[in-house]
Design brief:
This protein is α/β, with parallel strands linked by helices and about 280 residues long. The protein is built from 11 helices and 9 strands. It has an 8-stranded mixed beta barrel, surrounded by 5 helices. The protein binds ligand C2E and calcium ion (3 copies). The site of ligand C2E has 20 residues, from strand 2, helix 2 and strand 6. This is EAL domain-containing protein.
Protein backbone atom coordinates (compact mmCIF):
# COMPACT_ATOMS: atom_id res chain seq x y z
CA UNK A 1 0.00 0.00 0.00
CA UNK A 2 2.59 2.46 1.18
CA UNK A 3 4.95 1.56 -1.61
CA UNK A 4 2.20 2.02 -4.15
CA UNK A 5 1.39 5.39 -2.57
CA UNK A 6 5.01 6.46 -2.82
CA UNK A 7 5.28 5.29 -6.40
CA UNK A 8 2.20 7.28 -7.27
CA UNK A 9 3.47 10.38 -5.47
CA UNK A 10 6.83 10.08 -7.22
CA UNK A 11 5.15 9.74 -10.58
CA UNK A 12 3.07 12.87 -10.00
CA UNK A 13 6.17 14.81 -8.91
CA UNK A 14 8.12 13.52 -11.89
CA UNK A 15 5.40 14.63 -14.29
CA UNK A 16 5.26 18.05 -12.68
CA UNK A 17 9.03 18.51 -12.90
CA UNK A 18 9.09 17.27 -16.48
CA UNK A 19 6.38 19.74 -17.42
CA UNK A 20 8.27 22.58 -15.72
CA UNK A 21 11.45 21.64 -17.60
CA UNK A 22 9.55 21.64 -20.86
CA UNK A 23 7.96 25.02 -20.14
CA UNK A 24 11.39 26.37 -19.18
CA UNK A 25 12.86 25.15 -22.49
CA UNK A 26 10.05 26.71 -24.47
CA UNK A 27 10.41 30.06 -22.68
CA UNK A 28 14.15 30.04 -23.40
CA UNK A 29 13.52 29.18 -27.03
CA UNK A 30 10.90 31.90 -27.44
CA UNK A 31 13.25 34.54 -26.01
CA UNK A 32 16.41 33.52 -27.85
CA UNK A 33 14.62 33.03 -31.17
CA UNK A 34 12.53 36.17 -30.59
CA UNK A 35 9.55 33.93 -31.37
CA UNK A 36 6.32 35.83 -30.83
CA UNK A 37 4.25 32.87 -31.98
CA UNK A 38 5.25 31.03 -28.77
CA UNK A 39 4.98 33.91 -26.29
CA UNK A 40 2.95 36.95 -27.23
CA UNK A 41 0.60 39.50 -25.76
CA UNK A 42 -3.12 40.00 -25.84
CA UNK A 43 -4.64 43.37 -25.03
CA UNK A 44 -7.73 43.87 -22.92
CA UNK A 45 -9.44 47.27 -23.31
CA UNK A 46 -9.86 49.61 -20.36
CA UNK A 47 -12.85 51.84 -20.80
CA UNK A 48 -13.70 55.26 -19.41
CA UNK A 49 -16.98 54.85 -17.53
CA UNK A 50 -18.30 58.29 -18.49
CA UNK A 51 -17.58 58.30 -22.23
CA UNK A 52 -17.61 54.51 -22.73
CA UNK A 53 -14.43 54.93 -24.81
CA UNK A 54 -11.24 52.91 -24.71
CA UNK A 55 -8.52 54.79 -22.83
CA UNK A 56 -5.96 52.00 -22.85
CA UNK A 57 -5.23 48.30 -22.68
CA UNK A 58 -3.76 45.82 -20.25
CA UNK A 59 -1.17 43.59 -21.92
CA UNK A 60 -1.60 39.95 -20.90
CA UNK A 61 1.05 37.36 -21.71
CA UNK A 62 0.11 34.24 -23.66
CA UNK A 63 2.05 31.06 -24.35
CA UNK A 64 1.24 28.47 -26.97
CA UNK A 65 3.57 25.83 -28.35
CA UNK A 66 3.26 22.71 -30.48
CA UNK A 67 4.41 20.47 -27.64
CA UNK A 68 2.39 21.98 -24.79
CA UNK A 69 -0.58 23.64 -26.41
CA UNK A 70 -1.87 26.61 -24.47
CA UNK A 71 -0.15 27.25 -21.12
CA UNK A 72 -1.79 29.70 -18.71
CA UNK A 73 0.18 32.80 -17.68
CA UNK A 74 -0.22 31.80 -14.03
CA UNK A 75 1.71 28.61 -14.80
CA UNK A 76 4.46 29.86 -17.11
CA UNK A 77 5.12 33.11 -15.21
CA UNK A 78 5.53 30.96 -12.10
CA UNK A 79 8.02 28.70 -13.89
CA UNK A 80 9.89 31.74 -15.25
CA UNK A 81 10.20 33.14 -11.72
CA UNK A 82 11.41 29.81 -10.36
CA UNK A 83 13.95 29.21 -13.15
CA UNK A 84 15.37 32.74 -13.09
CA UNK A 85 13.92 33.57 -16.48
CA UNK A 86 11.49 36.26 -15.40
CA UNK A 87 13.90 39.14 -16.10
CA UNK A 88 14.62 38.20 -19.74
CA UNK A 89 10.98 37.14 -20.21
CA UNK A 90 9.80 40.40 -18.67
CA UNK A 91 12.01 42.35 -21.08
CA UNK A 92 10.68 40.33 -24.02
CA UNK A 93 7.14 41.22 -22.87
CA UNK A 94 7.97 44.91 -22.28
CA UNK A 95 9.51 45.10 -25.74
CA UNK A 96 6.43 43.60 -27.39
CA UNK A 97 4.15 45.99 -25.50
CA UNK A 98 6.33 48.97 -26.48
CA UNK A 99 6.23 47.89 -30.12
CA UNK A 100 2.44 47.78 -29.89
CA UNK A 101 2.48 51.33 -28.46
CA UNK A 102 4.74 52.39 -31.34
CA UNK A 103 2.15 50.93 -33.73
CA UNK A 104 -0.70 52.76 -31.99
CA UNK A 105 1.15 56.08 -32.16
CA UNK A 106 2.00 55.56 -35.84
CA UNK A 107 -1.69 55.00 -36.55
CA UNK A 108 -2.65 58.21 -34.77
CA UNK A 109 -3.77 56.85 -31.38
CA UNK A 110 -1.55 59.01 -29.22
CA UNK A 111 -3.35 59.08 -25.89
CA UNK A 112 -3.84 55.35 -25.46
CA UNK A 113 -1.98 53.82 -22.52
CA UNK A 114 -0.74 50.25 -22.36
CA UNK A 115 -0.33 48.62 -18.95
CA UNK A 116 2.23 45.85 -18.47
CA UNK A 117 2.35 43.48 -15.49
CA UNK A 118 5.74 43.37 -13.83
CA UNK A 119 6.87 40.76 -11.39
CA UNK A 120 8.44 41.73 -8.08
CA UNK A 121 11.70 40.08 -9.13
CA UNK A 122 11.95 42.48 -12.09
CA UNK A 123 11.22 45.49 -9.91
CA UNK A 124 13.84 44.43 -7.35
CA UNK A 125 16.59 44.45 -9.98
CA UNK A 126 18.97 47.38 -9.49
CA UNK A 127 18.88 48.16 -13.22
CA UNK A 128 15.11 47.90 -13.74
CA UNK A 129 14.55 51.61 -14.51
CA UNK A 130 17.53 51.75 -16.89
CA UNK A 131 16.28 48.65 -18.71
CA UNK A 132 12.81 50.13 -19.15
CA UNK A 133 14.19 53.47 -20.34
CA UNK A 134 16.38 51.61 -22.86
CA UNK A 135 13.36 49.71 -24.26
CA UNK A 136 11.41 52.97 -24.43
CA UNK A 137 14.13 54.77 -26.36
CA UNK A 138 14.83 51.77 -28.63
CA UNK A 139 11.17 51.59 -29.64
CA UNK A 140 10.82 55.38 -29.75
CA UNK A 141 7.69 55.64 -27.63
CA UNK A 142 6.53 58.24 -25.13
CA UNK A 143 7.20 56.98 -21.57
CA UNK A 144 3.80 58.40 -20.60
CA UNK A 145 2.02 55.81 -22.74
CA UNK A 146 3.47 53.02 -20.62
CA UNK A 147 1.92 51.99 -17.33
CA UNK A 148 3.36 49.36 -15.01
CA UNK A 149 1.13 47.13 -12.89
CA UNK A 150 2.66 45.98 -9.64
CA UNK A 151 1.17 43.93 -6.82
CA UNK A 152 1.37 44.78 -3.15
CA UNK A 153 3.34 41.62 -2.31
CA UNK A 154 6.51 43.19 -3.71
CA UNK A 155 6.28 45.90 -1.06
CA UNK A 156 6.62 43.43 1.80
CA UNK A 157 10.02 43.88 3.37
CA UNK A 158 11.20 46.23 0.61
CA UNK A 159 8.82 49.10 1.09
CA UNK A 160 11.22 52.07 1.17
CA UNK A 161 13.45 50.80 -1.61
CA UNK A 162 10.55 49.96 -3.93
CA UNK A 163 8.77 53.22 -3.17
CA UNK A 164 11.93 55.14 -4.16
CA UNK A 165 12.05 53.19 -7.41
CA UNK A 166 8.41 53.94 -8.14
CA UNK A 167 9.10 57.63 -7.54
CA UNK A 168 11.97 57.49 -9.98
CA UNK A 169 9.87 55.74 -12.65
CA UNK A 170 7.14 58.35 -12.25
CA UNK A 171 9.75 61.10 -12.60
CA UNK A 172 10.39 59.52 -16.01
CA UNK A 173 6.63 59.93 -16.77
CA UNK A 174 5.89 56.21 -16.47
CA UNK A 175 2.62 55.58 -14.66
CA UNK A 176 2.21 53.03 -11.88
CA UNK A 177 -0.89 51.03 -11.05
CA UNK A 178 -1.35 48.93 -7.92
CA UNK A 179 -2.92 45.66 -9.10
CA UNK A 180 -5.32 43.31 -7.28
CA UNK A 181 -6.00 45.91 -4.60
CA UNK A 182 -7.79 44.56 -1.56
CA UNK A 183 -6.41 41.02 -1.71
CA UNK A 184 -3.17 41.74 0.13
CA UNK A 185 -2.10 43.66 3.18
CA UNK A 186 -2.05 47.24 1.96
CA UNK A 187 -3.82 49.69 4.15
CA UNK A 188 -5.03 53.11 3.19
CA UNK A 189 -2.46 54.53 5.60
CA UNK A 190 0.24 53.00 3.42
CA UNK A 191 -1.37 54.25 0.23
CA UNK A 192 -1.00 57.87 1.29
CA UNK A 193 2.74 57.79 0.77
CA UNK A 194 2.94 55.17 -1.96
CA UNK A 195 4.12 56.54 -5.34
CA UNK A 196 1.34 55.28 -7.57
CA UNK A 197 -1.18 56.83 -9.96
CA UNK A 198 -3.89 54.22 -10.15
CA UNK A 199 -5.61 51.63 -8.00
CA UNK A 200 -7.00 48.50 -9.64
CA UNK A 201 -9.75 47.02 -7.51
CA UNK A 202 -9.53 43.25 -7.56
CA UNK A 203 -12.19 41.20 -9.33
CA UNK A 204 -13.25 39.69 -5.99
CA UNK A 205 -14.88 42.95 -4.90
CA UNK A 206 -16.50 43.55 -8.27
CA UNK A 207 -17.89 40.01 -8.19
CA UNK A 208 -19.56 40.72 -4.87
CA UNK A 209 -21.44 43.75 -6.17
CA UNK A 210 -25.16 42.99 -6.15
CA UNK A 211 -24.47 39.52 -4.76
CA UNK A 212 -23.39 40.45 -1.24
CA UNK A 213 -24.30 43.74 0.39
CA UNK A 214 -20.84 43.85 1.97
CA UNK A 215 -19.22 43.84 -1.47
CA UNK A 216 -21.30 46.87 -2.40
CA UNK A 217 -20.34 48.85 0.66
CA UNK A 218 -16.63 48.07 0.51
CA UNK A 219 -16.24 48.77 -3.21
CA UNK A 220 -17.87 52.20 -2.95
CA UNK A 221 -15.65 53.07 0.01
CA UNK A 222 -12.49 51.99 -1.79
CA UNK A 223 -13.37 54.23 -4.74
CA UNK A 224 -14.10 57.31 -2.66
CA UNK A 225 -11.05 56.90 -0.44
CA UNK A 226 -8.79 56.36 -3.47
CA UNK A 227 -10.16 59.55 -5.00
CA UNK A 228 -9.45 61.44 -1.80
CA UNK A 229 -5.84 60.31 -2.16
CA UNK A 230 -5.77 61.62 -5.73
CA UNK A 231 -5.69 58.18 -7.33
CA UNK A 232 -7.52 57.01 -10.43
CA UNK A 233 -9.56 53.85 -9.98
CA UNK A 234 -9.94 50.92 -12.36
CA UNK A 235 -12.38 48.09 -11.68
CA UNK A 236 -11.27 44.65 -12.88
CA UNK A 237 -13.42 41.75 -13.97
CA UNK A 238 -16.59 43.68 -14.79
CA UNK A 239 -18.89 41.04 -16.28
CA UNK A 240 -22.49 42.23 -15.93
CA UNK A 241 -24.37 45.54 -16.42
CA UNK A 242 -25.35 45.74 -12.71
CA UNK A 243 -21.67 45.99 -11.81
CA UNK A 244 -21.07 48.70 -14.40
CA UNK A 245 -24.07 50.70 -13.15
CA UNK A 246 -22.90 50.43 -9.58
CA UNK A 247 -19.40 51.59 -10.57
CA UNK A 248 -20.77 54.54 -12.55
CA UNK A 249 -22.93 55.50 -9.57
CA UNK A 250 -19.83 55.48 -7.37
CA UNK A 251 -17.75 57.52 -9.86
CA UNK A 252 -15.22 54.82 -10.65
CA UNK A 253 -12.97 56.07 -13.47
CA UNK A 254 -12.43 53.04 -15.68
CA UNK A 255 -13.54 49.48 -16.04
CA UNK A 256 -12.02 46.37 -17.55
CA UNK A 257 -13.71 43.02 -18.05
CA UNK A 258 -15.66 40.61 -20.22
CA UNK A 259 -18.70 42.92 -20.26
CA UNK A 260 -16.85 45.25 -22.60
CA UNK A 261 -14.28 42.88 -24.10
CA UNK A 262 -12.06 39.87 -23.53
CA UNK A 263 -8.31 40.25 -24.13
CA UNK A 264 -7.74 40.68 -27.89
CA UNK A 265 -5.02 40.05 -30.44
CA UNK A 266 -3.20 43.25 -31.37
CA UNK A 267 -4.95 43.29 -34.74
CA UNK A 268 -8.38 43.08 -33.10
CA UNK A 269 -7.43 45.66 -30.48
CA UNK A 270 -6.46 48.08 -33.26
CA UNK A 271 -9.65 47.37 -35.15
CA UNK A 272 -11.69 48.18 -32.07
CA UNK A 273 -9.93 51.53 -31.74
CA UNK A 274 -10.54 52.36 -35.40
CA UNK A 275 -14.23 51.48 -35.06
CA UNK A 276 -14.77 53.66 -32.01
CA UNK A 277 -13.19 56.65 -33.76
CA UNK A 278 -15.26 56.31 -36.92
P1 LIG B 1 -4.09 39.97 -13.54
O1 LIG B 1 -2.96 40.92 -13.74
O2 LIG B 1 -4.97 40.22 -12.35
O3 LIG B 1 -4.91 39.99 -14.90
C1 LIG B 1 -6.32 39.95 -14.98
C2 LIG B 1 -6.80 38.56 -15.32
O4 LIG B 1 -8.24 38.55 -15.31
C3 LIG B 1 -6.40 38.10 -16.72
O5 LIG B 1 -6.19 36.69 -16.63
C4 LIG B 1 -7.65 38.41 -17.54
O6 LIG B 1 -7.74 37.66 -18.72
C5 LIG B 1 -8.72 38.07 -16.55
N1 LIG B 1 -9.99 38.76 -16.82
C6 LIG B 1 -10.20 39.92 -17.47
N2 LIG B 1 -11.49 40.28 -17.45
C7 LIG B 1 -12.15 39.31 -16.78
C8 LIG B 1 -13.54 39.11 -16.43
O7 LIG B 1 -14.43 39.90 -16.74
N3 LIG B 1 -13.84 38.00 -15.70
C9 LIG B 1 -12.88 37.09 -15.34
N4 LIG B 1 -13.26 36.03 -14.65
N5 LIG B 1 -11.56 37.25 -15.64
C10 LIG B 1 -11.21 38.35 -16.36
P2 LIG B 1 -4.94 36.01 -17.34
O8 LIG B 1 -4.70 36.66 -18.67
O9 LIG B 1 -5.15 34.54 -17.31
O10 LIG B 1 -3.72 36.39 -16.41
C11 LIG B 1 -3.63 35.85 -15.13
C12 LIG B 1 -2.51 36.50 -14.33
O11 LIG B 1 -1.25 36.17 -14.88
C13 LIG B 1 -2.57 38.01 -14.33
O12 LIG B 1 -3.53 38.47 -13.41
C14 LIG B 1 -1.15 38.35 -13.92
O13 LIG B 1 -0.99 38.22 -12.52
C15 LIG B 1 -0.36 37.24 -14.61
N6 LIG B 1 0.20 37.76 -15.87
C16 LIG B 1 -0.38 37.83 -17.10
N7 LIG B 1 0.46 38.39 -17.99
C17 LIG B 1 1.60 38.71 -17.30
C18 LIG B 1 2.84 39.32 -17.67
O14 LIG B 1 3.08 39.75 -18.81
N8 LIG B 1 3.79 39.44 -16.67
C19 LIG B 1 3.54 39.02 -15.40
N9 LIG B 1 4.53 39.17 -14.48
N10 LIG B 1 2.38 38.45 -15.03
C20 LIG B 1 1.41 38.29 -15.97
CA1 LIG C 1 -2.74 43.06 -13.96
CA1 LIG D 1 -5.45 42.25 -11.40
CA1 LIG E 1 -5.18 38.72 -10.23
Amino acid sequence: ENDAGYAFFNKVMENKLQREDLIEKEIRAAITENDTSKIYLEYQPQVDLKSNKITGFEALARMRTKKLGFVSPMEFIDVAEKKQLIVPLGNFILTQASEFIRDLTDKGFKDIKVAVNVSGIQLLRYDFTDTIMKIISDTGIEPSSLELEITESVLLGNYNMINEKLKNLRNHQIEIALDDFGTGYSSFARLIELNIDTLKIDRYFINNISIKDSGDIITGDIISMAHKLGLKVVAEGVEVPEQKNYLMGHHCDRMQGYLFSKPLSKEKALKMLFNQNK
